[in-house]
Amino acid sequence: MKNFRTHLIILITYAISSCSLGASMPQQVTSLNVGCDADAVQITDEVIDLNGEESWIAQCGNKVYSCTYLPESGSDCYELHE
After folding, report:
1. CB neighbour list of residue 69: distance below 8 Å, 6 or more residues apart
2. Concatenated DSSP letters for 4-70?
3. CA pair distance 65, 40, nearest whole angstrom
4. Under a CB-based contact definition with an 8 Å cutoff, are residues 13 and 28 in contact?
5. How many other CB atoms sit within 10 Å of the CB of residue 65?
6. If we measure between CA atoms, which residue out of 42, 21, 19, 20 comes closest to residue 30?
7. CA pair distance 49, 53, nearest whole angstrom
8. Contacts 24+ apart (CB under 8 A), 52-58
9. DSSP category for residue 3
10. pLDDT of amino acid 18
11. How far is C-alpha 50 from the chain's CA centre?
12. Taking burial as the number of CB atoms within 10 A of a residue's CB, which of 17, 18, 19, 27 is the most buried?
């Protein structure tokens, strides 16, 4: 049930962001996963695979995250430590 709710929240957020809120889908997904304001998230190295999986590197403040999103299973971000 948690994956369904997460997926639903992501879809709603993506739909809202399409209405010109200014934050991209990766910014919104990162925000939901790490608790950072979507407008403060910087996205780099965004890749969309043929299977629909999206991945990117996100930075918020002094923290850097590796994030993925797959429509069937939801999203995940983990902090990268240098």
Report:
1. 10, 25, 26, 29, 53, 54, 55, 75
2. HHHHHHHHHHHHHHTTTTS--HHHHHHHHHH---GGG-EEEEEEE-TTS-EEEEEEETTEEEEEEEE
3. 13
4. yes
5. 19
6. 42
7. 5
8. 54/25, 54/26, 56/26, 56/30, 58/26, 58/27, 58/30, 58/34
9. H
10. 46
11. 18
12. 27
Residue with tokens 């429509």: 71
How many whole angstroms separate alpha carbon 4 and alpha carbon 64? 26
pLDDT at 15: 54
pLDDT tens string, the chain, 82 residues long: the values are 556 666 566 655 555 544 445 889 999 999 999 999 999 999 999 999 998 899 999 999 999 999 999 988 899 999 999 7
Backbone torsions φ then ψ of 73, nearest 5 degrees: -125, -5
